[in-house]
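Q: What would this complex look like in 3D?
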Amino acid sequence: MAGWKSLFPVDLADESRLSRREFARFMALVSVGFTGGIGYLCLRKKPLEGAPATRPPWAEVKVCRVEELAPGNSFLFTYRDEKDRCILVHTPKGEWRAYRQACTHLGCAVRWDGRRLECPCHNGAFEVDLGFPVGGPPTRPLSRLNVELRPDGWVWIHGDLPKPTLPGQGGDA
Amino acid sequence: MVSEEYGFFIDPQRCIGCRSCVASCAECGTHRGHSMIHLDELDRLASTQTGPTVCMHCEDPICAMSCPADAIKRSEDGVVHASQKPRCIACQNCELSCPFGVPIVFSGLEQMLKCDLCYDRTSLGQRPMCATVCPSQALLFAPRHEVGAMRANRPLREFLIGSLLVKTRNAIMVPDPETPLHLNAGLLCAGDF
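A: Here is my prediction, written as structure tokens for the whole assembly.
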């Protein structure tokens, strides 16, 4: 019988090359392996090589001097990388807010018009206090970054909040 | 599983051509409406003799060996089953290769169906549908050791087809078993049998 023919046996009993018992044994070994592996990682309690450090280099950036930005003005900066464009706003009331510049509708860059953040592409608008949409097509709030005014006179940005910000979560300064 | 003790015996001499087997085969629940039995008039001009053909369940099933889709399988008890629906490609290789002309590729189903010895019944100890209805018991499903006492004819399970020796699970009853029986398709076509 040709070699390939043995792979396609006529008898039904020879059809399965993996018996039920072998399959069960394989599955049991795999689950033992997974359990052991996860147990090892639990006991190890430190990240593996290549895992990101707990505070990445961009976790905190200083953006500008406090005195550079008068109330009612905004300042553009990048946070995680060159493409992560963000906007820092010093509101007329004197509060500091920082948001991702990407509009939650289609990702255009929002800008500060002195009263609220507006998106020029489809006329969307976000209020500046929490970043919630107040006009136009966007339905989700802008993602917010924490602002901290440090005694050294610089405005520091930290925190990575991809989800909508809730009151109390953001860093008021 | 069909008991090895039980054999299927085909006695064309006893066939009266009533077509009960054909009808009962078509009534079977597993292949509803399709009969797997060929009932042939052997020499219509000279004789009323008919002969039923069911699958002989070869020990080396040529249909299965010629199947390119690996769709025809034999179970442990020697029963060669109909093609597996997910695999059969209706290529008709089995039809052409079978020395007894048993497999039928149904064009509506696009699948080969053949006699599987009523596996749903015989694996539970019951007789195949055709054997239960045959009034002259030309199709007989019985313990092998009892057949000698029941019949004058003797079972034959080896056939020579050209130079190919075919051994089968089912038997044909012949008056004088010349072993193996020569089935020469060329002679049959010429009417010289």
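A: To summarize the key features: The mean pLDDT of chain B is 89. Chain B touches chain A at residues 60-61, 64-65, 70, 72-76, 81 (CB under 8 Å).
Q: Very helpful, thank you.
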